[in-house]
Amino acid sequence: MEKNIILAGVGGQGILSIAYVIDNAALDAGFNFRQAEVHGMAQRGGAVQSNLRYSDGELHSDIIPQGLCDLIVAVEPLEVMRYWHYLRPDGWVVTSVTPYVNIPDYPEMEGLLAELSTLPNMVMVDTGRLAKAAGNLRSQNMVIVGAASNRLNFTEDQLLKHVDGLFARKGEKIVAVNRRAFSLGRQTGAFYRGLVDGGMSALNALKLSTKLNPESLAVKHAPTWVEALDGDEAKLTAVLEHDGEVNADAASAFG
Amino acid sequence: MSREILLGDEAVGLGAIHAGISGVYAYPGTPSTEIFEFVERKAKKKNDIHAFWSTNEKVAYEEALGMSWAGKRALIVMKHVGLNVAADAFMNSALTGTNGGMVLAVADDPGMHSSQNEQDSRYFAQFALIPCFEPKNQQESYDVMHEAFELSEELALPVMVRLVTRLAHSRAGVETREQRPQNLLRPSKEIKKWTLLPSNARVQYSHLTDIQPTLLQLAEDSVHNELELRGKLGVLTCGIAENYLRENLEKDHDFSILSIRQYPIPAEKVRKFVEHVDELLILEDGYPLMENSVRGLFGLVGAKVRGRMTGELPRTGELTPDLVREALGLPKLETAHDLSGEIARRPPALCKGCPHTDSFRALNEALNIFDDPQVFSDIGCYTLAALPPLEAVHSCVAMGASIGMAAGAAHAGYLPAVAAIGDSTFSHGGITPMLSAVQQNVNLNVLILDNDTVGMTGTQRSMSTGATLDKIVHGTGIDPEHIRIIEPLPKNHEVNVKIMREELAYEGTSVIIARRACIEAIKR
After folding, report:
1. Under CATH, which number does the domain B226-327 receive?
2. pLDDT-based confidence at B197, cuts 50/70/90?
3. B355-523: what fold?
């Protein structure tokens, strides 16, 4: 087993906290790991990445070769495109769709998402919305680790242990927020994939999973939604335009 | 024995602690900063290692040399260009030699991620005639620190450990050992060796050249220089380049490999390798030091040498596994997506609310009475003001160079001569050119951006800020009427522009101190 991950985002978004959680889980599991990161000038709001590799065998390079990246985890959608030429043909992308706009020529969102959704092995989550629901907008990085956690070789508890460790210094409240962010990301990511695997388009799956009450999301509800909406755009529109909150177990009401 | 997650930098720091250092000396500089910070953090608990930032690399080097003189072990840390600043002390310390073990950990920045050049410190080790280790991974970075200190005491020489950014800033699990106790105070009695009067220096230099065969033999026998003879195609790697090679090789490959991680270059090992192969590729992260040495001035007879000088690898920039793959002639791996089209660039920028932004907005306006004014600047966060939207500064060369260059431009008749420099850079290299300018009363305007910290490298302690800075500036003998202090805030914009214009109009040396704390530092 060898897993090569590129963590992508913007300086200040907490890429190194994501790395901390995965590094420590890898250490606990007795894996070899390497994790190259960016310090210095780029941390001032520039594009930053971390190459993270773990394996039960030997690892050599700190940098992931092109074509050997198994997974891109992005806290920001534009940043995926900076590294997707490293992705192996069957590699995965787990990305936030919450843009971090600190440049004048940030691309228009609809086109960006359409381009990202051309990759088949994709998980898109609205980290901004989920982090807010968890109680702090700054917890977007933990949302995305949660969403990516299904693609890692660790149990939820093995990862959460280090979410706790990372934030312990800041008090119980912050720990609780970040645990919640992780869980919301994990549930939402799994639900999104459930929709896509059931045949829903990536963009529709994103819209639906963004509409539903995040606290209520579970992967088991995905097939009921696929069945209820049955590829009918009008039915999806009815959900999206529904006034007020929709719970994940309410699919039948829109069928 | 325990396994810890450490950056390459941290592995060097922990290795030095476990090797029994009594002091760490450094000036912040990417990618070396985390070495000092790690030792500082660890030392805080027990308070048994001296760890206080130095004003610059030369000071750091000399402080360490003093600790070595006193018989204790000292670690010196700097980035590659920092060694230029410390070069005087560094070169001469090879002649004086050491007493307590002294190791210089220098972090090079191939690819210039955060630097002005990508000079290769191995040349400095060669130049000074001292041993140099170039570890290939985090574990070896930790391990060689023990050896480097032992070797330093055995040979009574400073020893270099050379890192590159990729290793400095990459984490891995590292197995650690027991701590060796620190040395006792045991000042050197060898007065002559420390007093490099020509008559003594000649003796010391002869000694240094006399022991070169010993250094060479150590490198020949070193476990860090590994020769693996297989087929007629050879690859010679230095430091971390071996990892990029192995990343691309199958287990049953047929390449002969020579991996070098201890210098001077082990000539016999290289000869054995070269005689075995028909063709060899040389992989090194940095300058083509090994490649040029192996090829020599007139080329190598008997084997074809390839590398950065022959186009198989780029002449400049950081090595990557992909570049090595191409140089090995292996096909590109298939990917899920091409690197297609133009992706909007996201360059670094000054933080929201940064005091430098307000300082440069005011400076830009104050200078708009001149035709295309150019501002000499320096090294720090404020160098980012060179980029849009501010585009307020027009040079960045060396620590403190803004003041000297602005003075030189003023000597030539350039008006207005303006230098912009941060408080820490001022203490590092700005005081001496400032003194020089004041003594001549050059028509020069110096803007000191006093944000109370070393911002770019992560808000370390600044040596000359606040009242200390004011006293230093006064101490140069400058007319006190032309030391102005402003607070760079949007609400003060008009008055700050006015003050700048007044000083621009003054024919002599003036200093404006723009004082407001770094917002990143306040957050901490």
Report:
1. 3.40.50.920
2. very high
3. Rossmann fold (3.40.50)
Cross-chain Cβ contact A88/B334 below 8 Å: yes
First and final C-alpha spacing in chain B? 34
Range of the domain at A126: 2-254
What would the pLDDT profile of B203-247 be if each residue is shown by its tens digit? 999 999 999 999 999 999 999 999 999 999 999 999 999 999 999
**What is the rounded distance in angstroms from the CA atom of residue B52 to the CA atom of residue B158?**
21
**Lookup result for tokens 């933080």:** B351
The enclosing H or E element of B64 equals helix B57-69
- State how far residue A87 is from chain B, nearest Cα, in angstroms: 5
Judge contact between A55 and A32, C-beta under 8 A: yes
Q: Which of B492, B502, B369 is nearest to B445 (CA)?
A: B502
Q: What is the pLDDT of residues A84-94, one digit of tens each?
A: 999 999 999 99
pLDDT at B40 over 90: yes
Contacts with B31 from chain A: Cβ below 8 Å: 39-40
- B524 at A interface, C-beta within 8 A: no
| CATH number of the domain residue A188 falls in | 3.40.920.10
Question: What are the per-10-residue average pLDDT scores of chain A (255 residues)?
Answer: 97 94 96 91 84 97 98 98 97 98 94 95 98 97 98 98 97 97 98 97 97 95 95 94 93 89
Position A237 scores a pLDDT of 95
């200390």: which residue's tokens? Answer: B468
* Rounded CA separation B381/B439 (Å): 29
What local confidence, expressed as pLDDT, does residue A126 receive? 98
Is the Cβ–Cβ distance between B68 and B99 less than 8 Å? yes
ipTM: 0.94
Domain B2-210 indexed as CATH 3.40.50.970: yes
Mapping DSSP to helix (H, G, I), strand (E, B) and coil, where does residue B398 land? coil
The full set of domain ranges for chain B reads: 2-210, 226-327, 355-523
Q: Give me the sheet containing B509-515, strands edge to edge.
A: B375-376, B418-422, B444-450, B509-515, B483-486
- B2-210 and B355-523 share one CATH topology? yes
Q: Which long-range contacts (CB under 8 A, 24 or more apart) does B322-328 make?
A: B322/A65, B322/A66, B323/B244, B324/B241, B324/B244, B324/B245, B324/B247, B324/B248, B324/B283, B325/A65, B325/B248, B327/B281, B327/B283, B328/B235, B328/B245, B328/B248, B328/B281
- Within 10 A of B127 (CB to CB), how many other CB atoms are there? 13
CA-to-CA distance for B425 and B431, rounded, in angstroms?
9
Contacting residues of A for B167, CB less than 8 Å apart: 62
Kindly state the tokens that stand for A10.
């913007």
Please give the structure tokens belonging to residue B168: 């400095």
Per the structure, the count of domains in chain A is 1
Picking from A43, A91, A107, the nearest residue to B344 by CB comes out as A107
Q: What is the pLDDT of residues A198-211, one digit of tens each?
A: 999 999 999 999 99
Q: Does B297 touch chain A (CB under 8 A)?
A: no
For residues A50 and A43, what is the distance between their CA atoms, to the nearest angstrom? Answer: 12
User: Helix H segments across B393-514?
Assistant: 401-411, 423-425, 431-440, 466-475, 493-505
Residue B8 CA to residue B237 CA, distance in Å, equals 19
CB B103 within 8 A of CB B152: yes
Contact A41 B171 (CB under 8 A): no
pLDDT of residue A40: 72
With CB atoms and an 8 Å threshold, state whether B113 touches A40: yes
Q: How far apart are CA B325 and CA B397, in angstroms?
A: 35
Q: What is the pLDDT of residue B1?
A: 62
Specify whether the CB–CB gap between A241 and A209 falls below 8 A: no
pLDDT band at B302 (very low <50, low <70, confident <90, very high): confident
Q: Identify the band that residue B341 occupies on the pLDDT scale cut at 50, 70 and 90.
A: confident
